[in-house]
Amino acid sequence: MGFFDEAVPDGVLEPPLLRARQRDQRYQPPRDWVLPAVLPWGRRLAEGSATVIALDHVECWPEGATLQLRAMMRDGWDGASGPPALRHPRADGWHVGLEFADGRRVVHLDGSHRGPQVREVPPDEPLLVMGAGSSWGPYFRTLSLYLTPLPAGPWKLVTQWRERGIEETVVPLDGDAVRERAAEAIEVWTDLPEAPPSASTVTGGGTSVSARPAVRRERPD
Q1: Most buried of 40, 122, 173, 216 (most Cβ within 10 A)?
Q2: Around 82, how many Cα atoms within 13 Å sit in the side-chain half-sphere?
Q3: Three-state secondary-structure class, residue 179
Q4: Side-chain-side CA neighbours of residue 3 (13 Å)
Q5: Which intervals of the chain are annotated as region Disordered (predicted)?
Q6: Contacts of the segment 193-199: beta carbons below 8 A, 24+ positions apart
Q7: Do the strands 155-161 and 140-148 form a parallel or antiparallel pair, or are they unpaired?
Q8: Domain residue spans in the chain?
Q9: What is the spatial distance between Cα 94 and Cα 107, in angstroms, rounded to a whole number?
């Protein structure tokens, strides 16, 4: 008998079989089974007297892209313990948005409620979703912004962080280059069964959705 045999109870649950998410559930990058193609677009986006906001790189997935942003602060920042999770955006917080050639926009507002949002979407209407993840330390903060699907044409990346002395700044991005590189992502598990279909789309915390909002209804909490 092994050392740990008595400590492990009988009937240990096995992990569930990995499944590919349905298209309308892909509000997060498919890190479980896809290797993204990377665009090394390291560049400064905006800066204040003691803060530089930069784009590290872009991870391109089959149906989306993750923009990896980083703010570097030489004097440290008051939110080193983490940005507050509030129900309402902070007017002077770190805000990021994207505008596309067809006029649609998605926005991440600093301090917005991080709980899931559920919206009913017509099955034939493309939905723009941008989910946000963050990490931080005394002298840096990152934002990982996942966008799906990928609009064609040029993009505008807009940043603002008035608390750090950074006013609204616009930087152009080549959206078609992102779409082309997304075709080079590698699907590791090509035979995954599909997850059960869902009637609604759930977007992750800190997201904003845009695309003909008049035909969209938000469910009450």
Answers
A1: 173
A2: 6
A3: helix
A4: 0
A5: 191-221
A6: 193/17, 193/19, 193/20, 194/19, 194/20, 194/22, 195/19, 195/20, 195/21, 195/22, 195/25, 196/22, 197/22, 197/24, 198/22, 198/24, 198/25, 199/120
A7: unpaired
A8: 23-76+89-218
A9: 11
